[in-house]
Structures are given as C-alpha cells and as structure tokens.
Fold this sequence. Notes:
The chain is an alpha+beta fold. It has helices at 4-12, 16-36, 50-76, 83-91, 207-219, 226-234, 268-278, 311-325, 346-354; strands at 102-111, 121-123, 128-131, 141-144, 148-150, 156-166, 177-180, 187-191, 197-199, 239-245, 254-261, 287-291, 294-306, 344-345, 359-366, 371-372, 378-391. The protein contains nine helices and 17 strands. Strand 11, helix 7 and strand 12 (287-291) form a beta-alpha-beta unit. InterPro entries: Barrel_Baseplate_J-like, Baseplate_J-like_C, Baseplate_J_M, Phage_Baseplate_Assmbl_Protein.
Amino acid sequence: MPTQEQTVLPRVSRTIEDIRASxxxxxxxxxxxxxxxxxxxxxxxxxxxVVRGLLEIFCWGYWQIYSLLERLLTQATPSSAxxxxxxxxxxxxxxxxxxxxxxxxxVRFLRAAQGNLEANVTIPAGRxxxxxxxxxxxxxxxxxxxxxxxxAGADFVDVPVEAEDYGAAANASAGQIxxxxxxxxxxxxxxxxxxxxMEEGADEETDAQLRERYALQWQANNGCTKYAYMxxxxxxxxxxxxxxxDHHPRGQGTVDIVVRGADVLPTAALLDKVRAAIAxxxxxxxxxxxxxxxxxxxxxxGAIEYTTGDPDAIRAQAENRLRALFAETSPLADVxxxxxxxxxxxxxxxxxxxxxxxxxxxxxxxPAQDVLPVPADGVACLENLSLSAVMAEEM
Length: 395
C-alpha cells in the first residue's frame, strides 16, 4: 500500500530541471505574440546574456517555493512529521517525547583474598566501575550512589550504581561490568550478577515510537479498548513495546498487558510504573494484569558454508545479524527484532544469515525443530550462539 508521502508529495514536488523547461518553454512560445503587441523590441536570446541570467534566477526562486511546499507538507501531518515538528503535533494531544533514562542497578564488590576477613570495608560514594570495550570499542561506566559497607565475614556486597551515560546501551549483560576504575582498599574486583538491573536505561523516544503513541491517543478515545491499555503502558519511560492479550487469557473479563523494556525483559520497577500508569484509568470491572513476557530460551548452533571472503569476518557478521533478532530494537535496517508471541523458525534464521556476502548454505544443529513455538505472552531469548564457517566444497 502506498504511503501518504509516496502519493501526495509528487503532486507538489518539482525538480529544477522541470521548472526550467516549463519557464523557458513558456517564454519561447509567447515571444512572437509579445513582440507583435509591442511588448518586446525583438526576440529574446534564451541561450545566453542578461535575459538568460534573469530567467535562471526566476527559475531558482520558483523551485525554492516548491521545495518549501514539499517540506511543509511533510511536517504538516503527524504521519510524516519529524523532530520538533512531530513534538508539536504530539503536544496538541497532550503527549511529549519520552526522555532518555540512565541504567540503575546493583554491582557486586568482591573482598580481596589477602584482606582481613574480620574487618569492615567501606566503599565510598562515587567509586567508578566499568565494562571492558565492546565490539565497537565502547566502554560504559557506572558510579556508586552512596557509601556502602562490606561487613566483616562477608565475601561480597551489592552496591547501588548509576550509569554515567543515558540510554539502553548501558544495560550491561551479566558479568560485563568487571573493572574497578577507582581502587578501594580491601576490594579485589567487581561484577554484575544476573538480575543486577533495578531500572533499565532507555533511549530517547524515536519519531516512529512517538507517531505510534500519537495514533493510539486518538484510538484510546473509543473507551477502554486494547488501544487505551497500549497508550497507558507506552506512556511510561523505558517501555519499548507492549502486547495486549484481550481474548480472556485468564478467564472471562480478563486482559493481560505484556510489557517489554529496553533490555527486553522488564524489571520489577518498570512493571510497577506501568501498573501505576494504568490503575487510575481502568473501569472497576476490568480484571487486568501487567507482566513481562515469559522467556523462551533459544540455543543456536549452525554451520556456514561460504564461497568467498574471510571466514572470521563472515562468522562475526552472521552472529551480529542473529543477535539483532533478539534485541529489543534491531540495530540493522534489514533485520526486524522478534516480537512478543512470535515463533522462531529455521527459515528466519537462514534468511538472516544468507544476507551475509559469500554465504552459500547454512545448516542448523540447534534448534532441532523447524519452528520453536513461543506462547502469546512469551518472547524468544538467545541463550547461546555458536557458529562455524567452512569453505564450501566444489561440486
């Protein structure tokens, strides 16, 4: 189906070449008539000279008007507006762009083996911990928020930290935070255990996400429909997508609001914020439940046969593409992240890898089945990824 931009913009958009041909064609067609009436002393030379220069300036100004019309039309409707223009449309329905937030959680400080086990260790506020550089060379740093004490006899203590940078990139996976930048006497190292996040870091709301909420704001006016629940849930910073199960998931009169966060599986704090956003708006007879999606673990083990290229580069590119399937928002334009309730198929895995230049064939040892079923309130989560790359045999 053609979009509004595809169908409307060409009607008010003209190229400079089109305008030049139109203007010069018109002047050429009326020269004799104007000269006969005495408006012109002689035929104009349209190839060079002052007249050519004046007409070129006129054509440029004419083209600027059409360019302005095209830009104004793009920004005049919420479906195609961007940036500050879209913010203005959103404000007209009492919406504002969700701001970026910082990741907050508990990092584990480990007692030094040679330290005195019977002594308390004070960890001052403002101590910096960080991740090792990722594949793009980025390092994420976190600071302790308050003074903490590793009590005598304990091997570790979990200390609240906050990311220095805003955004979802700081939602480190378990074990990624492993370096103590500012030393603490009596502490040998740090780590972030599974479930360390208390509040997800979230990126600033994108134009596409704000457009979705703008449309939901109108659809939500029809009563307490699934669109209303979606609008309420998506108003919470950190919520990136939501699925409404309204076909009596727990019996008659029930509705489940399944929420994804910036780190896919939401924290308890984020779910509490969604409940607080929904509670004042729902009818008294609605039996609603806010929850995160149930994780369906996926182990991927495959062998890539390639015809040309570097095997390490091919394997790395294939791994990046497969990991994008399981991200909250895919960083790749041609890879769409798996959604709540979406089954994982071998065909999808193969399609994702075959886009890597040089790949001839992919065979999968895991998953063993053609379709990995995911329930309506579930989401596929990558547990382990292992790929090998071998040169394809000549036939």
